[in-house]
Design goal:
Helix 16 links the parallel strand 10 and strand 11 (368-369). This protein has a six-stranded parallel beta sheet with strand order 3-2-1-4-5-6, sandwiched between helices. Strands 11-10-9-12-13-14 form a six-stranded parallel beta sheet. The longest helix is centred in the middle third of the chain and has 32 residues, at 199-230. The radius of gyration is 24 Å and the shape is elongated. It is of the alpha/beta class. Helix 10 (199-230) crosses helix 12 (263-276) and helix 10 packs across helix 13 (282-294). The chain contains 18 helices and 14 strands. The mean pLDDT is 96. The chain has helices at residues 11-22, 34-41, 52-61, 71-76, 98-110, 127-138, 157-162, 174-183, 185-188, 199-230, 234-242, 263-276, 282-294, 297-306, 334-343, 356-363, 397-403, 418-423, and strands at residues 3-7, 26-30, 65-68, 80-83, 115-119, 143-147, 166-170, 193-197, 314-318, 347-351, 368-369, 382-385, 408-411, 427-429.
């Protein structure tokens, strides 16, 4: 067992802190949001993430997980201190480090002996060096700064943490390396890869990984558009490509673009770093441009079929969150898609199993929100599938047909089988499907 402090109870901090407690460590999570702390102390969650709803109250009850606003005490009582605060994108795409810097200063002022300070937030290359300099300027205590980027996918963050592909640790201090090995020993004992490297390579690995995945998505979306023109089916192409061991099957699904808190922000931040070092990343520039277009692809298909003026038309949306198993609306394709449809005069009625509240914070009353998927399509001229929640996989198509006024289906995630739906009389449009 080790004593661990995690500063920040946002998505990354809460998942990491809870999972470390689940592994048997004693964890103190620090935040200055009193409302959030009250929720967490009650064993409830401020975010939607499967698995946490059981793990948080269990570990709170067992005394392994504590929530506090006393950062100084948390630092003094811990061997390892994680920085897991937000790094939101600025207007120019660069990561805003004001919270990281503030926490680094507070940690420095609280140091009472050797600590390993771990950067869990996604930060630009060179940030750990900057944090090290800040702390050294304010404290005479010995410490080490380590880079340990997170690779958590929303919706499956708990299994991602507990069964990671790899654990990246950027460190040069041997004492810090040993601390990190002890911290992650419950996972490495089960076979998790512990990859040690220099700090800047660790910082770059995070950005390069997410940028590669975003690039694969945009590439396949553009291939899907070409498939439509030449009469090919992108699903067949995907299966053929994915069978090549050099390529693999992951992140080759065509759809309505990527969103969320990681890919858009991390690609923008890496592009900003490249600009600062006068090293253009032209492939990533194209990735971003392609994704902007792809997010409104379904809306453009609707307008092509129903007309540029959608006044009097009702469009049902299934799914609002950027992906299933989350309520996260950050950079969700449903937002620009809804805006295009509403601006064209359409009435948009949407249903999402988890994101109604967070969607309303973004879209307000510009669209209507249904209580279930079938209410969203009552009298609708078209149905757009935006998020591939499992409950949308096999709907009651007879009921769907009876509820809709017209029968256009726009499958933004290639979830359904075109031939079956066309045989039933639906006017099906997928992404790159035949």
């Amino acid at each position: 067992m080790m004593n661990v402090a995690v500063v920040g109870t946002g998505y990354v901090g809460l998942v990491a802190g809870t999972c470390f407690a689940e592994l048997g460590h004693r964890v103190v999570c620090v935040d200055n949001d009193q409302h959030k702390l009250a929720i967490l102390r009650a064993g409830k969650l401020p975010i939607y993430e499967p698995g946490l709803e059981e793990m948080v109250p269990k570990n709170v009850q067992r005394g392994r997980l504590v929530f506090t606003d006393d950062l100084a005490r948390a630092v003094r009582d811990s061997e390892v201190v994680f920085i897991a605060v937000g790094t939101p994108p600025g207007e120019d795409g660069s990561a805003d480090l004001r919270y990281v810097i503030a926490v680094a200063e507070a940690i420095a002022d609280a140091l009472n002996g050797f600590k390993v300070i771990v950067m869990k937030s996604t930060v630009p290359i060179g940030t750990c060096d900057r944090v090290r300099a800040i702390i050294a300027s304010r404290s005479k205590e010995h410490f080490a700064v380590v880079s340990n980027p997170e690779f958590l996918r929303e919706g499956v963050a708990v299994p991602d943490f507990m069964r990671p592909d790899r654990i990246i640790v950027g460190a040069s201090d041997e004492r810090a390396v040993e601390v990190m090995r002890r911290l992650y020993r419950p996972l490495t004992a089960d076979g998790a890869k512990f990859l040690l490297m220099d700090v800047r390579s660790s910082e770059m690995t995070k950005y390069a990984s997410n940028s590669m995945l975003a690039t694969r998505i945009s590439f396949m979306n553009e291939i899907a558009t070409l498939c439509e023109r030449v009469g090919a089916d992108v699903e067949n192409v995907r299966r053929g490509m994915g069978a090549d061991a050099r390529i693999g099957p992951h992140f080759l699904k065509a759809g309505v673009g990527y969103g969320g808190s990681c890919f858009p922000k991390d690609v923008a931040a890496l592009l900003k770093t490249a600009e600062e070092y006068t090293t253009p990343l032209r492939i990533l520039e194209a990735t971003t441009a392609a994704n902007v277009v792809q997010k409104v692809r379904l809306a453009e298909l609707v307008k092509n079929d129903l007309g540029d003026d959608l006044s009097g038309k009702r469009i049902g949306l299934w799914g609002l969150a950027f992906k299933p198993q989350t309520d996260d609306m950050r950079e969700a394709p449903s937002v620009p898609m809804s805006q295009v449809l509403v601006e064209a005069g359409a009435e948009v009625v949407a249903y999402d199993p988890a994101a109604r509240h967070t969607a309303h914070q973004v879209l307000g009353d510009r669209i209507r929100y249904a209580e279930d998927p079938y209410q969203a399509i009552e009298g609708a001229d078209a149905l757009c599938l935006v998020t591939e929640w499992s409950e949308f996989t096999a709907p009651d198509w007879e009921r769907v047909w009876a509820l809709m006024r017209d029968h256009f289906l726009y499958d933004g995630r290639n979830l359904w089988e075109p031939r079956e739906l066309i045989t039933q009389g639906f006017k099906y449009r997928g992404i790159g499907r035949r």
